[in-house]
Amino acid sequence: MKIVKWFEDWVIIASFMVIVLVTFVNVVSRYTFQASLAFSEEITINLLVVLTMMGAVVGIRLGAHLGFTYLVENAKPKIRRSLIIIGAALMIVFLAVLLIWGSEMMIHQAIRGRATPSLGIPQWLFTLSIPMAGLLGIVRTLQAARASLHEDTSAEAVAERLAQEAAPVIDDAELSRSVHKADANHTTDSQGGRK
Questions:
Q1: What is the spatial distance between Cα 127 and Cα 50, in angstroms, rounded to a whole number?
Q2: Using 50, 70 and 90 to split pLDDT, how confident is the model at 195?
Q3: Cβ contacts of 5-12, under 8 Å, gap ≥ 24
Q4: 22, 56, 82, 87: least surrounded by Cβ within 10 Å?
Q5: CB-facing half-sphere around the CA of 102: CA atoms within 13 A
Q6: What is the mean pLDDT of the chain?
Q7: Alpha-carbon separation of residue 191 from 12, 177, 180, 184, 194 (angstroms)
């Protein structure tokens, strides 16, 4: 799953970088040369779809989508389990619709040879993000539901998880560098150096 996580993250990063670059070049071209780049809009719009679809998958992976967590976390164990399963099932139904209809749309575009107007890029390459997001979203929803079913929802455990999420993460190497730096500054100050 590490490769899938890497793929999800880099599709988002690459899409966003290209959107920013193409938009910046278009703005500079418009104000400097008084000419707009015809292909910029089609690239930006198509990559925005890719960015949105893969961003939704990453949102599922990170648990960043909005939800009624108060109800689920404070429900009795059997009701909590039912709510998690029902929520995951509804998400999977929606993502299956994306997977099936997105695949159909992509196949029809490929068969018809549909291409983008300015650059002539096959349209199905951009549409591929819809069924891919459906498939990856189903996988991530199942993972999230499994993790939620085995998660401790006692008040103490929830408070501890929230505290861990809010606390900055400092690894041992960074901590030892900070201590060394503080010791070096203290030594310099005590020898009459800078303050």
A1: 8
A2: very low
A3: 5/61, 8/54, 8/57, 8/58, 8/61, 8/136, 9/58, 11/50, 11/54, 11/129, 12/51, 12/54, 12/55, 12/58
A4: 82
A5: 20
A6: 84
A7: 52, 21, 17, 11, 9
Token digits of residue 51? 């960015």
- Whether the Cβ atoms of residue 61 and residue 5 lie closer than 8 Å to each other: yes
Whether 101 shows a pLDDT value over 80: the answer reads yes
CA distances to 12, 26, 40, 45 from 31, in Å: 29, 9, 15, 21
Distance (Å, whole) CA 132 – CA 115: 20
Summarize pLDDT for 139-186 with one digit per residue, the tens: 999 998 998 888 776 667 767 766 776 666 666 666 677 666 766 666
Integer CA distances (angstroms), 106 to 50, 91, 101, in order: 13, 22, 8
Using CA atoms, how far apart are residues 140 and 51, in angstroms rounded to an integer? 17
Residue with token string 């996988």: 139
How far is residue 103's CA from residue 54's CA, in Å, rounded to a whole number?
Answer: 16
Which is more confident, 30 or 188? 30
